Structures are given as structure tokens and as C-alpha cells.
Amino acid sequence: MAFVELKNLNKFYPISGSEDFQALKDVNLSLDKGELVSIVGESGSGKSTLMNLLGGLDSQFSGEITIDGQNMSTFKEKDFVNYHKEKIGFVFQSFNLVSHLSVLDNVTLAMTLSNVDKKTRVARAREVLKQLGLDDQYKKKPSQLSGGQKQRVAIARALVNDPDIIIADEPTGALDSQTTDQVLDIIQDIAKTGKLVIMVTHSEKVAARSTRVVTIDDGKIIGDIRQGEIALHENLLEIQQKSKSKNLTFFAAIRLALLNMKEKLARNILIALGGSIGIMSIIVMLSLGEGVNDYLTETMNANVNPLVSEVRMPIVMETNNSENADSSMMIMTPAGAEIPAGSAPSGPPAGVTQSDPFGEEDLEQLRNIPHVAEVNLAYSSLTIGSDNVIYEGEKYAFMNFGTTSGMTDSNILYGAFPDEGEILITEGVANQMAGTAEEALGKEVTVDVTIDGESLEKNYVISGIYSAGQAIGAFESVYMSAESFETLTAENNLEVEPNVIYLVSDDPENTQAIKDEVAALGYRGSSADALASTFTQMLDIFTYILSGVAGISLFVSAIMILTVLYISVVERTQEIGVIKAIGGRKKDIRRIFVSESFLIGLFSGILGVGIAYLITVVGNIVVENLFDTAILNMTPAFAVFGIVTSVIISMVAGLMPAQKAAGLDPVEALRHD
Ligand code: ADP
Ligand code: MG
């Protein structure tokens, strides 16, 4: 039996609906190794159709094709892949070299698909290129070669896996007569090595150099003339072992994708830039959330005893109390003083704001909250313009007045907590009155403070300087001990009820439960808690806006990547055809495209992380100038999250184009130009 046997081969192309076009009609042909067969015939007679069937690019036929004893009708995808890898080499009229790959990479492509190691791959390719007189050209890109050189590269690519059959569809069709001779010499040499060379040609001259001329007309063989034999000699390529049934590795696919992306660098940079916006938004959003959270936690921990919950009476709208001018904001005034309860005072005058005093019922209710170990009563008021420290005849205004017990000493800059007859003042007041804060220590001043509508004056010694902190709402303040306060009010015949209560928890773990219960009972928590929740609300709004931006831009970039990969599939149709013809599986092609989307995702992600990092650095410099604290905290986890998200989105977007590429019909793909 001959190496190739065609029996009653028929080919029908479906045209429209039920209509078929018959391109091959009962073709019978036996071909053997060592033959150089020319297929001649008019244009449209069925030559290419026959080549595509022989080459296993088209598997739709009726009749029988037997290669080396194997019936092609029984071939599965895997068998076709192996057939392309091991038995067949294609040479095309239009060369079909992959433009973004070097000559060497074009020739090694088939071996790359078979996962042949790099050393073997390069050695074998260079050996073949040398045989074809191209050894000094292997680094060039196809566009840098002449037509004859291109066709020789294509022949090298066909030969490199040492196939049994070479199929050449008009290999000299695009060449001038001199290079045609060169290429024909090579083709003759190939036949001499014992391969079966089947060549489609229009040219009498070309046909004259073959051992056999088969003429086709209208899908039928009308002539088959043998015209001499070729003297066989040894294989001109020493190929030790054939690489079998290994596949394209992930790294090789990445490399192929990279080479293609490098060719369209500007485009890919723009895509990565577009894709990075969404990732950047996500990371900035996360960093902002983290930063604000850190800031709040830090501020609260610096000022608040973890056991203590501050409680104030709810705001009643009829009074002069207004929510945003209330109390000491960030400044805590914990106190341990038992301030005697008395008759309810009249409301404070305009310009003075203070929380309403607690009644007996309120105290009872708060005492009964589970886990409350201690109830401390305190007093605090916020005034505008009426409270002053008088020193050497000059008045220095402060806004917040309160009692000290339970205040953490972490914010005391100089000196100590005040004893009877002493006060603690904030840095700003101290600076104003004495030049430097430290200088104010030990000075005797008159404190003029409005309590329950009465202006009280008394002399005190400054025992310590307190930092008001940099937070918004940190007011200049004067604090004294609860005992001093009691003395002051008693001397002026005032009975002041507590308007701030500090509940001490039996365990830090239970503090939050106490705060929740306080809120449930309708009381207000500390103004720091309120500020924290305002911050959290602002942060939520920011987060919504940024999530919106992130979501939309991620969606847009996914569509962009999808579009670009579709365009890439169209641009690379011919390349996909070539890869299939040299034994690339659907999987390999999918892998190359998925690698490309992986890389786009990776680059967008890295770019997004980079831009986000710059934004956090610049943003923090700006914010630090304003508030003396960094508010954007980008952690490594966010960077990793951003990159992973980017890669996932990009790969999902790349699935459809990759699928489309993998599903292309090689015959169609190779016709594409
Ligand atoms: P040749 O290579 O000899 O010029 P082809 O084998 O390409 O001829 O085509 C043979 C005939 O089959 C032509 O009439 C052509 O129009 C037709 N044909 C080829 N491919 C298709 C196809 N995919 N669908 C329908 N008809 C086709
Ligand atoms: Mg043709």
C-alpha cells in the first residue's frame, strides 16, 4: 500500500441552505515517499481543496484518506494534532510567517508548541536554517527579509519537525523566476531525502522539475504522468528524536503573548492605563478607609480610657443648645467628682452651651446598666466669648471648661494634674499668655468662667499644660479638679448638677455593650464617638463615590480588553491558522490569548497600584499639612488585592476572544489576508 491513498474522495462545500457545491469528485490517488508531485489545474479546479484534506486542515469529506496505513476518518482532534506535529509540513504561497516573531521563533514555533527544550529547539532550527542558507538571518523579523528568504524560512518551519509529507500550495507563486529556482532546488532536495512532497503550481516550469504531474479539472483527476525519479540520498537533516505528545507550557504561552504585545506596545500601554483607573480607585478607596479607621482608633485611644463611656443628656431643641456647638468635642473631661444634686438650674444664657443636667431618674437608669462598675459625675460647658483666663491684666479667651478626674495624662505636655486651687490649661492659651507653653507653668491667673448663667472669678495656679490635639473641634480649655469645682460653686452659692456622666465598665470588653445600652436608652454618647460616626459617614460617602468610579471603570476596562482581544484575534487570524497547521491544539491557542489577557491584567494592576501609591503619598503630604496626620494608608494586602482583581477581570474579559480564536477554522484562517 502506498504511503498516501485516496479512494473515492468527494468534497462538498455547503453553500446555502440545502445546496452543496462539489469541489472534488471521486478522486483516487496513491502517493509515495520520495515523490515530488506537482498538482496542476485551472484556478478553482479543486487543488487547494485537495491539499487541505490531505493536510488534515479540513476533516469534512466522504471517501477514504489513508496515511501510512491510518484511516483519517477515524482521527480525533488529538490525532490531527499529532498528524500536524509529526507527519505534515506546510508551505504556503503567502509564506504565512508570524510577523511579530523573529525568524528563529517562527521556525521553532512548532517545537515550542511541543515543549521541546530551548537548547534542542534552537540547535535544530539553526541547523535547518543553515541548510537553507539563512544562518545569518535568524534574528531578523520577517518584514526584514526578501520574498525568497521568507519562503525559505517557511520551508525551514515546515521541515523542522522532520515530517514525512510536505504540502506546498503554490510555493513559488509570489516569487520572481530567480528565487523560484532557488526554492525549487530546495524542494527537490527535500524530496531526495525520502519525503513525499506535494506541490500545487500553475507554472509549467515548476511542474517540469517534479517526478509526477497530476492534473485536476473541475474536481476530477484528468491526468497523472510520471516523469522520472529522484535519486534518494540520506536525510539532509539529522534529527535524533522526535518530540511527542508534549504541549505548550504556560511560560512559553506567556512569552508568545509578550512578543505579540511588544509589537503593539503603544496600544497595550494605553489599555493598561485605562484598565488601571478602576484598580487605582479601589486601592485609594481601601487606603482611605484604612487610614481614617487608623486615625479614629488612634485619636480615641489616646484620649479615652477603654473602661469609660461618656454620657450626656439628649439634646432638646427648645433650649439654646445646638448640636454642633455642644461640648468639648475631641476633648475628654472625665471626672470622678460627686457633684451634689440640686434644683434644676435655669437654662444657660446665649453664648453658653452645655448639656442638660442629669436628674435622679437618669442616674438611677444609668447605674442599672449591666457591667457598670462605677458612675462618675462631672461637669463641662462650652462658651463663646465669655470665659477668660486673666493674667497681668490681659484676658485670654478659652471655650471649654470642665473637670479633670479620669482624664488620661498622655496629653499633658508639661507639669501635672491640678490639685485644689490649681488648673490645667491648653497649650494655645498658655502660649498666648506666657510666650511659650512651658513658661506658663506655676503662674497665678484669674479664671473667669460662666456657670449656670453666673460669671464666677477666682485665682488659680497653673499646674500643667494640656495638648488640645490637632483634631478639628479641639478647643482651648481650662480644667480643674472636681473638688476645686465644688469649692468654686459652693463659694458662690450655686448648686450645679452634673451634665456629664462617666460610666466605668467592669471590663474593657463590656464597654461597647454599655455604650450601646446608653444609646438605646436615648442618651448621647461622647462627642468623640459622635465625631467618629460623622467621620465614618463621610467616609461611607467617599467610599460610595469611589466604588462607583471603580465599578464603572472596571466594567469599561473589561469591555475595552474584550474589544482589544477581539481585534487581536482578527489581526492574528493567519497566525492562528499557522499554529493549527503546525500542530497547535485549541487549548494552546486559547492559552496564548488567555496569557495575553493575563498580562494586560497584570500590567494594569501594577500600574493601578503604582498610581494609587503616588496618590496616597501626595494625598498624605497635602492632608498632613492641613491636619498633621496621614489619612491614606495603603497596605501591601491592598496592592496584592488590586493586582489579583485586575488579573481576574482581564482574564474573564479575555475568555470569549480566546474561545473565538481557538475555534477558528484553519482553512478559513489561512486564506485570510
Ligand atoms: P484551486 O485551489 O484549484 O484554485 P479551490 O480548491 O480553492 O481551487 O476551490 C475549488 C472550488 O471550490 C472553487 O470553485 C471554489 O469556489 C470552491 N470553494 C472553495 N472553498 C470553498 C468554500 N469554503 N465554500 C464554498 N466553495 C468553496
Ligand atoms: Mg488554490
From TrEMBL:
Instruction: State the compartments where it is located.
Output: Cell inner membrane
Q: Where is the ABC transporter domain?
A: 4-252
Does Membrane count among this protein's keywords? yes
InterPro entries attached here? AAA+_ATPase (IPR003593), ABC3_permease_C (IPR003838), ABC_transporter-like_ATP-bd (IPR003439), ABC_transporter-like_CS (IPR017871), MacB-like_ATP-bd (IPR017911), MacB_PCD (IPR025857), P-loop_NTPase (IPR027417)
Which SUPFAM superfamilies would you find in this protein's record?
A: P-loop containing nucleoside triphosphate hydrolases
Domain of life, per lineage: Bacteria
Check the record and name the CDD domains matching this protein.
Answer: ABC_MJ0796_LolCDE_FtsE
Q: Which GO terms describe its molecular function?
A: ATP binding; ATP hydrolysis activity; transmembrane transporter activity
A GO BP entry is:
amino acid transport
- Annotated Low complexity bias: 339-351
The protein here is known as ATP-binding cassette domain-containing protein
Q: What is the lineage of its organism?
A: Bacteria, Bacillati, Bacillota, Bacilli, Lactobacillales
